[in-house]
Amino acid sequence: MKEYYDRRAKEYEAVYHRDDPVRQQELAEITSAIEEAMRGRRVLEIACGTGYWTQRAAKTAAHITSIDAAPEMLEMARSKNLPLDKVDFHLGDAYKLDILGRNFDAGLAMFWFSHVPKARLQEFLTGFHAALEPKSTIFLAENMLQEGVGGELIRKPGIEDTFKRRTLADGSVHDILKNYYNRSELEAIFSPFATNLRIEMGACFYRVQYSSSLRQS
Ligand SMILES: C[S@@+](CC[C@H](N)C(=O)[O-])C[C@H]1O[C@@H](n2cnc3c(N)ncnc32)[C@H](O)[C@@H]1O
Q1: Which of 15, 171, 212, 214 is the most buried (most CB within 10 A)?
Q2: Nearest CA owner, ligand 1 atom 25
Q3: Do residues 164 and 152 touch, judged by C-beta distance below 8 A?
Q4: How many helices and strands (H and E) does the chain possess?
Q5: Owning domain of residue 136
Q6: Residue 175 in domain
Q7: Which DSSP letter does residue 3 get?
Q8: Ligand 1: which of 18, 68, 76, 116 to mutate, most ligand atoms within 8 Å of CB?
Q9: Could you give the number of structural domains in the chain?
Q10: CATH number for the domain including 202?
Q11: If you measure from the C-alpha of residue 199 to the centroid of ligand 1, how many angstroms do you get, rounded to a whole number?
Q12: From 3, 4, 5, mutation site for ligand 1 pocket: most ligand atoms within 8 A of C-beta
């Protein structure tokens, strides 16, 4: 996955510029919701990619520490020249967050959650919440499964995860782990970690927002 994103870095942000009014409207709503949710917060951002959402969250956040596993994606993020007193970008692993200390009162994970294998969901969520102060604000958004958008959905025998088959501009083809969830599955996953859980299912994207509960490691 890291190699795929390194190769995709320069073309990645095209996903945010598709000529589709519904998509653009939902992206605008997500942007507003992030600006509101991150206002004044010390944010830990997981899998920041090219920093598209970092830039938006930085408008209102007090500070953002953003990590990603793909150096080429981070290079794109750093090239945005976001204010150095507000944003730190680090090479890092979403499953090894304990090295970051616990000085965060918000967590942001945009278009990352779908890439977590089902067998690692609890590991990721436990580590994510443990890296944040109790009662932190959490915000994440993801794609809805849409026929014909973002490549063919692939199922593999004996594997509970699904994949999207993606072709990059250089012609390389990649099966990228990408899981989709409905509202009740999301409620079941996040309820144990959440108070004030809000789940919005759109046509193109869903978003999940809550305050992390006190019951975390
Ligand atoms: C779909 S992109 C999302 C990028 C950005 N958050 C956005 O929404 O535009 C997924 C990102 O996850 C990163 N990634 C993959 N595995 C990772 C890991 N184990 N730890 C941290 N980041 C990872 C990839 O490099 C990629 O930038």
Answers
A1: 212
A2: 70
A3: yes
A4: 6, 10
A5: 2-146+180-212
A6: no
A7: H
A8: 68
A9: 1
A10: 3.40.50.150
A11: 22
A12: 5
